[in-house]
Design a protein that fits this description.
- Residues 42-179 form the Ap4A phosphorylase 1/2 N-terminal domain.
- It comes from Purpureocillium lilacinum (Paecilomyces lilacinus).
- The chain is an alpha+beta fold.
- 27% of the residues lie in helices and 22% in strands.
- It has a domain at 44-185 and 260-298: HIT family, subunit A, CATH 3.30.428.70.
- It contains 6 helices and 15 strands.
- Strands 6-7-9-11-10-13-14-12 form an 8-stranded antiparallel sheet. Strands 4-5-15 form a 3-stranded mixed sheet. Strands 1-2 form a two-stranded antiparallel sheet.
- Helix 2 (133-150) packs across helix 3 (216-237).
Amino acid sequence: MTKNSHYSDPNGVMENWGASDLVDLTAKALRMFDELLSRRKLFYAESRPEIVQHEGFLFEFRQSPVLTKKPILPRDAKERSGNGGPFLNPDPDFVVATIGHHHVLELNMYSMFRPMFVLHTREFAPQTDDLDVDDVSAARNVMASLQGGSGPQMMLYNCGVDAGASQGHKHMQIVPLPSSFKLYPELADSTEEMACNIPNIPYKHFVLRVPPSANSGQVHAKLVRLVESCRVAQRQARTGDAYNVVMTDSWLCVIPRRRAAPGSRIANGAGMMGAVWVRDPEERRMWDTLGPSAQLSQQGIPISP
């Protein structure tokens, strides 16, 4: 990476990217991914999508034994307060790029996709913080740079333990947008009027479209509006303050969460979209026991029929 070259976001945030870095990001990540996989430092198993429709809601289930290896910090772990954790001193073998002044892009050690990314803050910030404009800018730049080589991407931010956060250090995940079905926020049609009652969605949700000309500051302003509406819903339902953010280049979605039932595996932002990742056939059957839509309804704030 050229130290003196920069990529300028329309919001005015200067990124430490050169034009060649943007073009070559996918190729570089794949080279690193395959090397780490061959050395057994990174874990990945190819998965096939299983498409299911339940009560009008589309699901894509993927099974991967890699998820059995992934560590999930206990709710009260000291690392959730900044005392240690994998992102404070990251393994350089996993670092793909430094994004601007505040973020690091790494390969995900426990990958559902080839490749899969974690985008975290350089300094510790808690995973219960809202995303700021630098977070949004970094995620948008990474997604845009991956578009040509890896196809459309989505950003997941699991804000809080009950939103599916496995680590306490502020981080986003960058994953491929499912190609086998469309996510429901695509049905939203306004950049100003929130979609909050999309048909067949069993839980509270808040969606805005993002115009192609929007800069990161404008996108962040839309996100703030969505989070404010999320918090109103949480106060009314007397739940906690965890939520998911899912962002693509064309829409933003915020989902208020509540604590899952004891023994349940908490769905992350992708799961709440219907892109559910499970460890094994037994966990897959658990989703059918209650019904996939009911599982999501229990982990979000149910929409009354």
